[in-house]
Automatic annotation (TrEMBL):
<dbReference type="Pfam" id="PF00717">
    <property type="entry name" value="Peptidase_S24"/>
</dbReference>
<dbReference type="InterPro" id="IPR015927">
    <property type="entry name" value="Peptidase_S24_S26A/B/C"/>
</dbReference>
<dbReference type="InterPro" id="IPR036286">
    <property type="entry name" value="LexA/Signal_pep-like_sf"/>
</dbReference>
<dbReference type="InterPro" id="IPR050077">
    <property type="entry name" value="LexA_repressor"/>
</dbReference>
<feature type="domain" description="Peptidase S24/S26A/S26B/S26C">
    <location>
        <begin position="21"/>
        <end position="130"/>
    </location>
</feature>
<keyword id="KW-0234">DNA repair</keyword>
<protein>
    <submittedName>
        <fullName>SOS response UmuD protein</fullName>
    </submittedName>
</protein>
<keyword id="KW-0227">DNA damage</keyword>
<keyword id="KW-0068">Autocatalytic cleavage</keyword>
<keyword id="KW-0742">SOS response</keyword>
<dbReference type="InterPro" id="IPR006197">
    <property type="entry name" value="Peptidase_S24_LexA"/>
</dbReference>
<dbReference type="InterPro" id="IPR039418">
    <property type="entry name" value="LexA-like"/>
</dbReference>
<keyword id="KW-0378">Hydrolase</keyword>
<comment type="similarity">
    <text>Belongs to the peptidase S24 family.</text>
</comment>
Length: 138
């Protein structure tokens, strides 16, 4: 072997050397990253029957629903005692807590300590059950 001949691995070529500089250290969170957040997967049970509605008013602050918040409403869920619902009562859309007491159904809000008891002549239709509230942080 000649003295001026360098030992190089097969397939290697001679060329300019480029310096690589690493600054800082890699993020520890990189090991746990499995893609972006899919809010549909995290927040929505049934995509076909789920809607987002903006709330106006202060009737349900004890439930954590404030004026201007968006709520996720699932129309496929059955209403149960204690469900927070979007209800159309005599042509007015309301956010209320559904309350069942024996044979009576009432709609409870923060505005009154007593529920509004649904009467036989009332036109009532439940639009859906609220599953989540998207609260604005101001």
């Amino acid at each position: 072997m000649a003295e001026d001949q360098e030992l190089m691995p097969p397939g290697a070529t001679q060329g300019p050397v480029q310096a690589v500089s690493a600054m800082g250290f890699p993020s520890p969170a990189r090991d746990y990253f499995d893609g972006g957040l899919d809010l549909n997967r995290l927040l929505v049970r049934d995509r076909v029957s789920t809607f987002i509605m903006r709330v106006s008013g202060h009737a349900m602050q004890s439930a954590g629903i404030f004026d201007g918040d968006e709520v996720i409403v699932d129309r496929s869920l059955s209403v149960r005692h204690g469900s927070v619902v979007i209800v159309n009562l005599n042509g007015q859309m309301l956010v209320r807590r559904w309350q069942i007491d024996g044979q009576q159904v009432g709609l409870l809000s923060d505005e009154s300590p007593l529920p509004v008891i649904l009467a036989e002549g009332d036109e009532v239709s439940v639009f859906g059950v609220i599953t989540r509230c998207l609260h604005h942080v101001r």
